[in-house]
Design brief:
The chain contains eleven helices and eight strands. It has 280 residues and is an alpha/beta fold.
């Protein structure tokens, strides 16, 4: 029998807690469809079918979905149901948060079964007062969404981690928005900005309801590294997300890699399963 080295033993023991949690966890893994954007534009139904066949359980639509009408949303919902896929959140352009635009976003998300109408970002904001003003608009929007059983969230990029007069915009958003407003964590952007993802999750209990599982590595073309092959401390991130963060679903996101997009999505899911100790 082969005797394991100390390094191999440590690596194996680090995976045990994740494997045990995977056995009991019902938190699904999904795909942010920006990862397969070209395929989705050419063949939306075929792409969704391919994603489901890989074993993804959830999908997150991004900006182009907002151009749909209600009938198209119903067609997509029927397809999702037939494939066993769920849409729990959407990524939205700024039009979706204007008064008339929000009405359309609400209609489409209700049809899709999505709870979170996520803000994909904001126009450039250069002052802390500007971030507080955005927080005020979010608070008023949440007063519309909450009675409908819906919510919203903010998806971070690198810029929101850069301090303005000593204050990070993400901290301002967290402090001045309702607790029901999701802080959707893009891990790759957080790591690229030199921030501590685990500390952020622990500082905002119950608000990290979904996580974009995007990796980053300085030594390999930044965001183009596959999930699990970069710098992010995934075991610690998942442990914090499930014990403190309130995560409801995970979303693989890939901006591109050395492989074709669907192959990239498949490889990322394989890496996820290995990390979680799950069978393929």
């Amino acid at each position: 029998m082969k005797r394991l080295s100390r390094r191999e033993l440590l690596a194996a023991s680090a995976l045990v807690p994740l494997a045990l949690r995977a056995g009991a966890s019902r938190i699904p893994i999904g795909l942010q469809l920006y990862s397969v954007r070209d395929e989705l534009a050419k063949d939306p139904d075929g792409t969704l079918s391919a994603v489901a066949k890989m074993g993804y359980q959830v999908v997150e639509f991004y900006a182009p979905y907002y151009l749909w009408n209600a009938e198209r949303a119903r067609q997509v919902r029927r397809l999702l149901d037939s494939l066993g896929l769920q849409c729990r959140s959407t990524h939205n352009p700024k039009q979706a948060f204007e008064p008339e635009g929000l009405k359309k976003a609400i209609e489409l998300n209700q049809i899709l079964g999505s709870k979170y109408i996520v803000m994909a970002g904001s126009d450039p904001i250069s002052t802390i007062e500007g971030w507080k003003a955005l927080s005020g608009r979010i608070t008023r929007m949440m007063q519309v969404l909450t009675p409908l059983g819906l919510s919203s969230g903010f998806h971070n990029h690198e810029v929101e981690w850069q301090p303005i007069n000593g204050h990070r915009p993400m901290d301002v958003l967290a402090a001045h928005t309702p607790k029901q407003f999701m802080l959707q964590l893009d891990v790759g952007s957080c790591v690229a900005a030199g921030q501590d993802s685990v500390a952020w999750i622990k500082a905002n209990p119950g608000r990290i309801n979904s996580i974009h599982c995007k990796d980053w590595a300085r030594w390999f073309r930044g965001y183009r590294v596959l999930f699990g092959d970069g710098s992010a401390p995934w075991s610690d991130i998942i442990a914090a997300a499930e014990s403190t963060g309130g995560v409801e679903f995970y979303l693989i996101e890939q901006e591109g890699s050395r492989y074709p997009p669907l192959e990239t999505a498949r490889r990322c899911l394989e890496n996820w399963r290995r990390l979680r100790g799950e069978a393929g």
